[in-house]
Amino acid sequence: MATPSDSGGSAGAPVRTIRVDGARLTITGPPHATLLDELRAAGYTAPKASCRRGECGACTVLVDGRAIMACTTLAVLVSADVTTAAGLGAACDDLRAAFADHAAFQCGFCTPGQVVRAEAVLREDLHRSRDEITRAMAGNVCRCTGYRQIVDAVCAVAQSRGRAVEAGS
Question: CATH assignment of 16-86?
């Protein structure tokens, strides 16, 4: 993906610069433009434009480490670092592998949002119960898998990372 630089907004619109996946992104769109609109206009494809109402989670990104739905967040209000699924990089290779190992995706449309949400859940607490992980992931919809596989993958990574922390690595 080319490094995004300008989202090409309207004349007279507020201009601000944020960091997305480590790169600078200038927000120049109208005040009602969502973070999702700005990201997609700048060429970021990981956050998916699906429901545009905050109901599916396909557009989930991290803003200063906190999972949010980009379709319901006004871009001009974002002043923190934004991380998309693509920007997580090697930090969540174990999570991506677990999704593959547990058949936690089929069509793949929801996968970037699921991975971002799962990474946020894991960063918050590696010692959640299966029910707590299920509830924490509930904001992200998957029409293919039925969720068991997604929760299986997140639980497996939580256990693995928990063991690594306990072992001191």
Answer: 3.10.20.30
**Contact criterion met (CB below 8 Å) for 123 and 67:** no
At residue 8, the pLDDT reads 45
Residue 108 reports pLDDT greater than 50: yes
Backbone torsion region of residue 74, taken as left when φ is above 0, otherwise alpha when ψ lies between -120 and 50, otherwise beta = beta
Alpha carbon of residue 93 to chain centroid: 14
CATH architecture entry for 88-167? Orthogonal Bundle (1.10)
Taking only the tens place, the pLDDT of each residue in 67-89 is 999 999 999 999 999 999 999 99
Asked if 145 contacts 168 with a C-beta cutoff of 8 angstroms, the reply is no
More confident residue, 168 or 69: 69
Q: Tell me the average pLDDT across 61-70.
A: 96
CA distance 67 to 37: 17
61, 47 Cβ separation under 8 angstroms = yes
Distance between CA 140 and CA 115 in Å, rounded?
10
Q: φ and ψ at 13, to 5 degrees?
A: -75, 155
